[in-house]
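ESCALATION

Customer reports they have been waiting on this structure for their group meeting. Please prioritize. Original submission:
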Amino acid sequence: MPYLNRPYQEKHPLAFLGNGYVDPPEDAQSKRWVDTCTFPERIDETGRVMFQERPDRKDWRRMKDIEVRPDCIVYCTGYKQSFYFLDPSYPTASDATIRNIVSPKDPSISFIGFVRPGVGAIPPIAEQQAMWWTALITNQMAMPTDPPHYHLLAKESSRIKYGVDHSAYMSTLAKDFGGAPGLRELYMTHGLKVVLVYCFGASFVTFYRLVGPFKSNVAPSITKTELAETIMRRGVLGNLFFGVSDQYRFVVCLHPLNSNLGDTHALLRPHQLYRPAAGDDWSDTKGKANCLSCMHASGCMDTSLVEEESS
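Update from on-call: job pushed to the front of the queue and completed.
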C-alpha cells in the first residue's frame, strides 16, 4: 500500500482532522512507488501505452502526460473456477450453500476463500472461514440452518454472483462458532479500550478471537495497539463520521431479535441498502429495499442509507 499511495501524499496543516498518510518506518525514506492507471486502450507504434481517458480519476490525471513504454506486459484476465482434480461425485464451490463454505451433502470438504467482499480483503475472510469449518468438523458447532443475510445483490448477467457484505458475513460466521462477543462480555473481560476499538473498528479477525473456541491470549494486546492505531489514523472527523454516526444508526435501526446491544458486530457497522436494478429478480423481498446490516426487509429506520451497486 505505501507504494500505491506515495505519489498522492499530501501535506496539510489540518490533516490531523482526517485520514493521515503513514509510511512504515522500514521504508519511510524510499522513493519507490507503483503507478496505477486506467485500462490500456492500445499500444502505439513506438510502444507507448495509451490509457483510457478518465478525467475523474486522479491516477489518470497524474499519468496522462507521462510516456509509458513497458518492457513486459502481463495480462491479468482473471480465471474460471475449475475443480477437474476432484471426482465428479464431490461438490464444488457453487454447491457450497451453507455459508458459502460447505455443501449440506458433504461437509467434509470445504471451499475456503471463494467469496468476494464488497469492501475488505479475502485473506481475513478465509481465516474466519477456516475457523468456522474447524469448529464444524470438530463438533464444536452445529450446521447452521438459518437463511443468509449477507449476500450482495447481483444481476443474472453479472460475472460475480458470490459477493458478500464483509461485516455481516464475518459476524455471521463468528456467531455460528461462538466467537462473536457481546459488549458487556467484552467490557467485563478486557476493559473499556477493547470495547471502544471493537465498536469503532472494522471486522478484524482478531475481534472474533477475544472470546469463544478460538480465543487467543494475544488478541487483547493486538486490539489495544495495532487495531487501535487504525482508528487513531482516521482523525477527529474520520471517527465522527465513521464511528459516532454508525453508533447512532445502530441505535435507531435495532433488529428486535438483537436488541441486547452486543449480539453481533454486524449491527455496529454502517447500514447498507440494496435496491433492485431494472430486470433483477427480487421475488424473495417483494421488490422492497433491504438493510443487510440489521436484516430488516424494508423496515430500517435509517433514512440515510446509501444505495450501492454490487456488481
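Sent to customer with the following note: Helices lie at 2-5, 58-63, 122-137, 166-177, 183-190, 192-200, 219-232, 235-252.
Escalation resolved.
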